[in-house]
Amino acid sequence: MALPIQHAPARVCGTATRDGALAPPRPAQRARCPTRVTAVADAPARSASQPSARPKPGVPDGTPMPYPMELPSRPRRNRRSQTFRDAIREVNLSPANIILPLFVHDGEDDLPIPSMPGAFRHGWKTGLLAKVREARSVGVNQVVIFPKTPESLKTSTGEEAFNPNGLAQRSISLLKDNFPDLEVYTDVALDPYNCDGHDGIVRDDGVILNDETVEYLCRQAVSQAEAGADVVSPSDMMDGRIGAIRTALDESGFTHVSIMSYCAKYASAFYGPFRDALASAPAAGKKNRIIPPNKKTYQMDAGNYREALREAVADEDEGADILLVKPGLPYLDVVRALRDASTLPIAAYHVSGEYAMLKAAAEKGWLDERESVLETLLCFRRAGADLILTYYGVEAAQWME
Ligand SMILES: NCc1[nH]cc(CCC(=O)O)c1CC(=O)O
Ligand SMILES: [Mg+2]
């Protein structure tokens, strides 16, 4: 059967130069150009009664002639076998790249999170330990802890954030006691502890105070370090907090504790399921108090790229050890920008909404979950991420085996 191949309109045969311009064709190439009609003269003449006669047996109509084409380059040769494809793959994905985010609550049972099927608020003792044991068994040895604070403990300044006996602090200690070589990351921001649902302290007129918040973040980070945290991760986007936290840690004897800065964190709709999990969405305005309904005065605008570089330079100068971009997939250009601009390790957060999208499509049977998750995570690596925070951490590591 003749294949419905349409010849492309005649184009200039030439060689693309490095800057993408077409160089004039070299004489030797003229004869090779598949769209040139001269080649047809070499084909057997077609009689009027056999309009679709083929030039050679088994060669579909429309095949460019001469056949085989004299191609100087055939990239498909390098894709011919799985062995070869594996051998020359440019980046790889390993459980070592994964940081598993874990929600904890101050109770016993693991509670499902409806907008994040397969993820739980773990009971801070048994459930948390069991999940970490499972993660380690597949090679994931890094976790980040997100505590769900009971509403009764939330205040407008979030002091529970640095309660030495708080849920976060207890969870960190428990993990380090049980798994001394586990890398425990923490979240530094006030939103899970703040009755207004903001990462910083909200003044009555709705302004989110920067410098006052930084002081609280320093106390929170030091308290997490005292509990045994290996890496504190400020996710609040206040200005100047990396330098202040570095100084506070150093002065308290924690020169060995690292800082992973959420340096390019965007005001994103993809955090919705996370805020469900922690009941941490910005609160409704109250009598005599204005509470901004979103985080746009501190998290970045989705349209901005250069601004991410500005944030990265500042955080690197202030002493960050790792730079993080968040969300992940819609912001891979920013991951690449930071990868190229900095010598620090780069982390990317495959956030709750991105997880929910894949889960929902997989549950409907619209996507192959394993293939789409592994592809997604590999693309983070290609964009330049060393570390990937993903709720798919354990499943992905199992699938990698
Ligand atoms: N500062 C808190 C914090 N740390 C991580 C996330 C979101 C993570 C996710 O969506 O998976 C958020 C929510 C927010 O900024 O509103
Ligand atoms: Mg900043």
UniProtKB/TrEMBL annotation:
The keyword Lyase applies. Keywords: Chlorophyll biosynthesis, Heme biosynthesis, Lyase, Porphyrin biosynthesis. Residues 28-55 have a biased composition (Low complexity). GO terms for biological process: chlorophyll biosynthetic process; heme biosynthetic process. InterPro entries: ALAD, ALAD_AS, Aldolase_TIM. It catalyses: 2 5-aminolevulinate = porphobilinogen + 2 H2O + H(+). GO terms for cellular component: cytosol. Residues 1-79 are annotated as: Disordered. Its EC number is 4.2.1.24. Gene3D superfamilies: Aldolase class I. One of its GO terms (molecular function) is zinc ion binding. Pathway: Porphyrin-containing compound metabolism; protoporphyrin-IX biosynthesis; coproporphyrinogen-III from 5-aminolevulinate: step 1/4. Homooctamer. NCBIfam families: PRK09283.1. Belongs to the ALAD family. Catalyzes an early step in the biosynthesis of tetrapyrroles. Binds two molecules of 5-aminolevulinate per subunit, each at a distinct site, and catalyzes their condensation to form porphobilinogen. This is Delta-aminolevulinic acid dehydratase.
